[in-house]
Amino acid sequence: MPEVRVKAHVSDEHFRAYQAEARRRGVPVEMLVQQTVNCLLEELEREENECRDVLMTPTPAGRSAHGEPG
Asked: What DSSP designation does 32 have?
C-alpha cells in the first residue's frame, strides 16, 4: 500500500493529550497521530463504500433511492 507523508495541525489541547499518551506507551507522538489518521481514513473509505452500496441498491420502478416518486 502506498504511503503519503503529511503534516497535521493539532490543537494545543489535543497535542498535550497525544504527548501524555505517547509517554505512557513509550512511543513517538507522530505514531499516535499516524494511527489516528489511518483509522479516520479507513472509516471514511467504509462510509464511502456503504454510500455506494445504498446508491447502487435497486429500487421499485418509478421510485428514487429515497422512496420518492421519480
From this structure: H
Angle at 11 between CA 26 and CA 24, to 5 degrees: 15
Using CA atoms, how far apart are residues 48 and 65, in angstroms rounded to an integer?
16
Which residues touch 62 (CB under 8 Å, ≥6 apart)?
69, 70
- Please write the tens of the pLDDT for every residue from 35-57: 999 999 999 999 998 887 777 76
Nearest-5° Cα angle at 4, 43 to 46: 15
Spatial CA neighbour of 32 closest among 18, 20, 42, 43:
18
pTM (two decimals): 0.67
